[in-house]
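User: Some background: our group keeps a shared notebook of sequences we're curious about, and every so often someone picks one and asks for a predicted structure to add to the entry. Today it's my turn. The entry only has the sequence so far, pasted here. Could you supply the structure so I can complete it?
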Amino acid sequence: MTNPPGRAEKLSRSAGSVVFDADVLVLGGGPAGTWAAISAAERGARVVLADKGFCGTSGATAAAGTGVWYVDPAPERREAAMASREKLGGHLQDLRWMARVLDRTYAQSNQLADWGYPYPSDDDGKPQRNSLQGPEYMRLMRKRTKQAGVTILDHSPALELLVDGNGVVAGAAGLRRQKGDRWVVNAKAVVIATGGCAFLSKTLGSNVLTGDGYLLAAEAGAEFTSMEFSNAYAISPAFGSVTKTLFYSWSSFTDEEGSVIPGASSKGGRSIIARALRKGPVYARLDEADAETQRHMRVSQPNFFLPFDRTSLDPFTQRFPITLRLEGTVRGTGGLRIVDDSCATRVQTQLSQYATRAAR
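Assistant: Of course. Here's the predicted structure to add to the notebook entry:
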């Protein structure tokens, strides 16, 4: 029987292991991993995706959701968006990459709509595409990944990259936890999309984000960049694990006595909150959100409100205690150093070797 077009070929199943031959191996089944797998498969590559959990439900995005940098392509709006982010980042950003990210985000968000993602609309009927509900988003991404012909290995953490005698990465190997055996994938290219490391801080969806991909890449000789900007702490209810810091832009912050904490805010004032927490409890109340904003909050990120609804606490009118939870490198502000527009690292793969030879 021939292998279906676009499917990775299962070469053998020896005692205790299963071996696949693929063009591309993707490690990690979150947004980056599924988008990479779909993109490669749509271009005719045979793709295997391995996830240490269940692709579509594991990871920070699937459990929570995410804001999206969705900006209308009008030049003045793009320039304003980049200027705002550049100021927040201390003017250290690469403007060319910011423009590329805006272009890709706009196109992919519209692609999600074409695939059937249920974006909400405002009162004028205009779709609101600046936020994604994690469960809906990643359920759709798993569906599209399978439809693209990608072979998905669930509950299959990678343990090592396969490197030949010349230092060229030629695949990876790991465990299939539910099968009780090992997997090996021989691949011309390996995409590491395993997310960052939250150091088991109990932020929602982050317990699987333990830096595995960083370690594998470092062992193969990859370099890192901007890690000094990746020690992020996010605001969370003291009784919960959801770290949707954006909503605290509409919050006031007070101490135990009810006095406003000067300078405390979700942007630019988080260090003040941290210092206040060393002295005693800090409370938040989302009292600066009007009725329309409150409605939009609940529609865009309903899981944020679950801990409040379960305790019959109204975060818009009642104070609630908050804490700061370490997100580490999960936000993606640092990580593997890429060397070109294809997001390659300095580590050679079989595919990059072919490209180098062809260019000579």
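Suggested note for the entry: The CA atoms of residues 15 and 181 lie 9 Å apart. The chain is about 30% helix and 20% strand.
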